[in-house]
Each structure stands twice: as structure tokens, then as C-alpha cells.
Amino acid sequence: MNKNVSLTSEFSHKPVSQRYLIWKRFTRHRLGVIGGAIMLFMITIFAFAEFVAPYEYLVPHADTPYVPPMITRLHWDGISPYVYGMKRIQATVEYQGRVLPLPGVFNYEDDLDKKFYLGLFVPGEEYKLMGSFKGNIHLFGLTGTENLTSREKKFVKFFPLGTDQTGRDLFSQILVGGRITLGLAPMVILVSFLVGTFVGGFSGYLGGGWDTFIQRITEIFMSLPRLALILTISGLLATLINVPPMVRFWSIVGLLSLIGWAPLSRVVRGQFLALREHEFTQAARALGASNWRIIFRQIMPNIMSYLVVAATLAIPDIIILESILSFLGYGIQNPLMSWGYLLNAFQGQGFLTHMQFHPWLLIPAFFIVISVLALNFLGDALRDAYDPFNVTSGAAE
Amino acid sequence: MVSFIVRRLLYMLPILFIVSFIIFLLMWMQPGDVVDSMCGLACPPNLREAMREKFGLHESFVIQYAKWAYGVFFSPSIEASFPFIHLHEPDFGYSPTRSMPALKALLGENRWLWTIILVFSSMAVSWLIAIPIGVYSATHKYSLADNAFSFLGFIGISMPNFILGLIFIWLVVGVFKLGLQNDFFAVGGILNTEYVGAPMSLDLILNFLWHFGPPVLILAGASTAIVIRYMRSNMLDVLEMAYVKTARAKGLKERLVIYKHALRNAINPLVSMLGFWVPMMMEGALVIAIVFNLPQLETTFFQAIIVRDNMVVMSGLFVFSLILMFGNLVSDILLAITDPKIRYE
Q1: Residues A121-148: b if buried by 16+ CB within 10 A, e if exposed
Q2: Residue A330: its chain B contacts at CB < 8 A?
Q3: What is the pLDDT of residue A396?
Q4: In whole angstroms, how far apart are CA A268 and each of A151, A261, A273, A312?
Q5: pLDDT tens digits, residue range B247-287?
Q6: What are the DSSP calls for A303-325, one per residue?
Q7: Does position B56 have pLDDT exceeding 80, yes or no?
Q8: How many contacts, defined by CB atoms under 8 Å, are there between A and B?
Q9: Half-sphere exposure of A198 toward its Cβ, with a 13 Å CA cutoff?
Q10: Which residues are paired to B94 by β-bridges?
Q11: ω before B132 within 30° of 0 (cis)?
Q12: What are the chain B neighbours of A236 within 8 Å (beta carbons)?
């Protein structure tokens, strides 16, 4: 009897799946969990960017250029936030004893007579959610503006992070830009992984002459300078005007994949070379399995987790590259929006003016850093979780 | 060893040929040419034809490529008539917008020198900072300082160079407004204009450091973080080895164990990575040079892309791939020297 009890208690432990172990190891990595949470939060918000954004990101508010961030001017009445209307004041400069107006430069002050509460689900500018669902309800906005004249309405606005040269809301632009920035990188990774796995896999699996041939091609691609090459090619593309936005988006995806696949195929090839000689592959071959079957049913599942980790670690790099490209003016362009393209204001003539008087235009940089940081933490935690021997290779490539 | 190097050098030639072909093909496929940007929209057709003929753009692809490749690969030569040695530079074509040979437009005015100084000084800075920190982190594993360094390292890796540059300029120009208080603290370029061509003085050196120091430090930033990571993990691996235990067991001082036995072996893999490091730094230097407007070959390269001066762009791409290939070669050689396990037949 006693023996029986001990036996059942021994078997009452549930068998622990590999997935559970990985999850367990992942959650132990606190920074990784935080990174993952930040990414999830960002992705949810950016998916509904037009709804979350208080204004349509391309609509200019020509009467209110360069409004400083209004988050700092938010007041609290108990728990309900309110802002005052804006008073636009012509900026002046003293020159040779005379006071001259600076054309097009304004200062903004609170108009204490007008007080507007912030509300949730407020009707505002019309938008098309994900390009198909029309709507005009925004997550938050100013309430009680219905009775104002159209002239008054122009100065009753809530721009959380300020506006740019033409009075477009920076916060809305950041939200929509985040969708492109964070959406483009996984596309690039997907394309370059498909190509890299295909090429590298065949190279490693077939071996011999094919391997040498494919490796030579990969080598040529790897001896081209990455950044200079994509700058050149997008410099060529920039001369094409009236390119549909989606074509531009996909051409940049293609461009970044062009430099992404080669190093990846190297790695995949190495894995294939190692697994090709393994016992289970030989067993499958002895049973008469076809090459395709061995590649897709035997080897691929074995390197899949490795590929997932490598993909997560490669995404931050692509985000940075896209930002550099757009920052230099050769990546994403109007009417599309990306964080790097928002920083493009700092290219060329306006550089020092913006630095001195409109520093809030640098805010998109903060979002780039945060998302890259979060992805790095996430990738690091995933690598540790998937790697049962905790063999961590140096740094994120 | 020598035969290995020679073989690798010879092997580079066909790859260089193919790379040059790809570069030329890219330029050939672009819509429009330099005449469009030089002559403008209201260009009379006969003038356009004349200009195209002048720059050899009217000829077929094969002839244009053959001319260019001949200039690149076969025109450089060394003419030695004792006691003089005369070096013919490779001919990368003529830059119409700058009215000079393309290679001179790209590298001239000591631009190549500034690139080399920027890349190597920031490499030196990053290694000088990173290696002691890496050793410290490995020997004090999971201590407060180690965790702090690895967190800082994460931030360093996640900070793109150009954003660091922008933030630095914002601090100088926007927050502290140093330039308004003193002309000495201008940003951009390599010297204040009043110092250009002035005789050497302490002010000039300080001004140079003010202009050139920040780009060096910023460029060093990200690579410092990566070197710390590599150094830490290498050091941890080495500290587990039997010979380190032996050294400890025979009563050697811990300091000697670390610096004499462990560090030397832990640093080897890093040295072999020197070759990969240079192209990586070049990439960072490209952006930094544009943000800080440094007189480097990267800025001319970018300008050439803007005005579509194909010859300069092509020579730039060629020079960059040459650096990349040499970097790979150097790291292979260093690997063979430092790691006795690797043997090249």
C-alpha cells in the first residue's frame, strides 16, 4: 500500500514540455520580459495609430506652426486634465534700436479665458483606419469645442508633442511612423530569411560544387559595403518621382534584404553542414526519404528555434539602418512616415535653427532608441531561453 | 603563411572584377545621368548631346565599362627610374561636377587622411576603455558594477551613432548655447574658420579637439559596448580553463593570473576581429561625417550621390569594398597568427 502511494506520487508530476521550459527560462530574464511588454504595447498602439492619434498625421494646421509640446501645459482639475486655448504672439527682434517682427515665427501662450477638458472617444478629423475603415472618433481630444467659430477653433488644439513647420501634429506622425518603422523591419527579416535559408540551406545540404559556387556568390555580396550600397541604390531610386507609396515601401524592403540575406545564408549553411551528417538525417536517408523531405521535415525543425532567435536579434539592426536611410532623405518619404524620416528635418538648412528653437522635433529619436533597446533585451532573453546550454555568443551582430 | 597571403590576394582580384561590374551595372541602370543635374530642365537637346558626348555617356554599355575597368585595373603602375619612383594613380574617370579626376575629388584635400584618423582613433579609444571594463566585469561577475556595465552596454548598442550626434549637438547648441557665448565653440567641420591655415597654436589644438573629439567619442560609443561584451565572455571562458586553475594552484598572485595568463589568451579572438572592425567603423563614420560635416571622403561620397556624380559614387563604392575586402583579409591573417589551432594549407 505504502509503496503504491509513493509510486503514484512519483508519476503525478506532469511531463514538462520543451516549450514550457523555454517560457520558464524566458520569464526569468526580467529585462527581456520588460522589453517584450514594451514591444507588445507599441505594436498594439501603432496598429490603431489613426484612432489613438489626436489628429490626422498629414493634415497641416497652417496657423499653428512649431507649437512646443503641450504635455507640459496640461493642467489637472482633480483627475480630469484640461488645457487652455493658445494665444499666438508674433515674435519680434530688436535690431538697431527698432523692434521688428520676425515673419512666420510665433510664440504661444495660454489663453486663460478659454479652458477645455480632455475627453475620451472624441469626434475629430476624419481618418481611414488601416486604409479601409472610415471614422472620426479619436481616443482622446478636446471636448466642448462645438460652439466655437472656425477662427477660434484654429487655436484650440491639443498637440501633445508639438507641431512641425506646417503645423502637423508630431505625436500623430510618430504613431503612424512607428507603424512603418516597426513594420518594415520584420518584412526585411522575413524576405532575407526566406532567401538566406533557401540559398544557405541548399548550399550546405548539396555540398560539393554547388556549395562552392553558391558560397562564391555570397562572398561577392558580402564584399559590397552595406550602407554605401543601399545609399547609392536608393539615391538612384530617389530620382524617380511619383512613385506610389507602397512601391517605395517595398523597394526599401527589397533594398535592405539585398544586404541582409548573405550573412544569414552563411549561418544557415553552417547549421545544415553540421546536421547533414547527423544520425537522424542518415536514418531518414536510409529509409529512402527524398531530399526535400529531409530538408523540410528533418533539418528545418531543428534549426527553426535558432532562426527565430537570430531574427529577433537582427531586427534592431534593420531598424537602425532604415532610420539612417530615412534620416538622410533616401528612405521612407512623404506621404509615408517613419521615425527616421521625421528626423530628416535636421538634414540641411534648418539644422541649427531646429536645434536651437524646435528641439522637440528630436523626440522621434527617443522612440527609435527605446524600441531598439526593447528589441535587444527581448532578443537576448530569447537567445538565453532557447539555448539549453546557455552558450551565449558575444554580441548581437 | 606567405603563400596563403599571396593566394588570398590573387583570389581578391576576380572578386574585385565582379564587384566593379556590379557597381557599374548599378550606375548604368539608373534613370537619367549627370547631364540632367548639370544642365537643368530647360536644356537644349543639342547641348545635352554635346555634353553627353564630352563625358562619354553616348557610348554603349560594354565600351563604357571596358574604359572604366581599364582605367581602374590597368592604368595604375609604378615607374621606377632610379632614384625616382613615380606612381600612376588608377583612373576612376572624370568628375564633371567637380571638374577633376574622380579619385581626387573623392580622396583629395587630405579627406582620406581624416577618415583614417577618425576611424583609428575612435577604435583606439573604444579598445582602451572597453578592455579594462571587460576584464573587470569578468572577474567581478554579477556584481553591481558588472550589471551596470552590461546595462550601459545595451544602451550603447541601441544608440545609433547619428542619434548620439544629434543629441550632442542639441546639448551644445540648444541647451547650453555654448556657441552664443563664445565663438570658439562652433559645431560642424574640423576647425573654426578663423583657424584654417593659421599657424599652430594652443588655441588651434584645443579648437581641433573640440571639433574632432566628440565625433571620435560618439563613433567609439557603440563599438565600446560590443568590445566589452566580447571581452567579458572571452575572459569568462578563459578563466574556466585548466591552465588558469593550475596557475592559481601553484600560488600565483591573482593579478598575475589575470593579466599574464588569462588576458593574453582572452584578447586573441578580439585581435583577429580587427579586420572586421574597420568596415564596421567605416559605416558608422559615414553617418557621423555627414552629421558633423567633417571633411572626409564619406561626405564627398554623399554629396556625389545627391548631385548624381556617377564617377565619384562608383569610385567611392569601389574604395569601400576594397577596404572591406582588405579588412577580411587582415582578420584572416591575424587569426592565423594568433590562433595556432587554425592552419592554412
Answers
A1: ebebbebeeeeeeeeeebebbbeebeee
A2: 305
A3: 33
A4: 63, 10, 9, 15
A5: 888 888 888 888 888 888 888 778 777 777 887 888 889 88
A6: HHHHHHHHHHHHHHHHHHHHHHH
A7: no
A8: 123
A9: 7
A10: B101
A11: no
A12: 26-27, 29-31
- Residues, chain B: 345
Q: What is the ipTM of this complex?
A: 0.86
B116 min Cα distance to partner chain A (Å): 17
**Most B-contacting residue of A232, A352, A363, A375 (CB-CB within 10 A), to test interface:** A232
Question: How many Å apart are CA A255 and CA B280, to the nearest integer?
Answer: 19
**Domain B119-294 in CATH 1.10.3720:** yes
CA A360 to chain CA mean position, Å: 20
CA distance A203 to A215: 7
Instruction: Tell me the HSE value of B273 on the side-chain side, using a 13 A CA sphere.
Output: 19
DSSP string, A174-239: HHHHHHHHHHHHHHHHHHHHHHHHHHHHHHHHH-HHHHHHHHHHHHHHHTS-HHHHHHHHHHHHHT
CB-nearest to B163 from A229, A236, A365 is A365
Residue B40 DSSP symbol: -
Residues of B in contact with A266 (CB under 8 A): none
* Cell, residue A393: 555568443
pLDDT at residue A363 greater than cutoff 80: yes
Distance CA B296, CA B301 (A): 9
Q: What is the mean pLDDT of residues A315-335?
A: 89
Q: Which residues of A175-204 are buried (b: 16+ CB within 10 A; e: fewer)?
A: bbbbbbbbebbbbbbebbbebbbebbbbbb
∠ CA A224-B230-A219, nearest 5°, is: 20
Q: Where are the domains of chain B?
A: 2-107, 119-294
> Is B282 in contact with B323 (CB distance < 8 Å)?
yes
State which residue of chain A sits closest to B234, comparing Cα positions: A394
Q: Which residues in chain A have their CB less than 8 angstroms from residue B18's CB?
A: 220
Q: Which domains can be identified in chain A, with CATH numbers?
A: 61-164 (no CATH), 173-386 (1.10.3720.10)
**pLDDT for the residue B177:** 82
Alpha helices in A328-362 (DSSP H): 339-343, 351-357
**Average per-residue pLDDT for chain B:** 84
Residue B312 DSSP SS3: helix
Angstrom distance (rounded) from CA A216 to CA B115? 30
Q: Give the burial class of A115: count Cβ atoms within 10 A of its Cβ; 0-12 exposed, 13-18 middle, 19 or more buried.
A: middle
Task: State yes or no: pLDDT of B297 exceeds 80.
Answer: yes
CA A396 – CA A393 distance, rounded (Å): 8
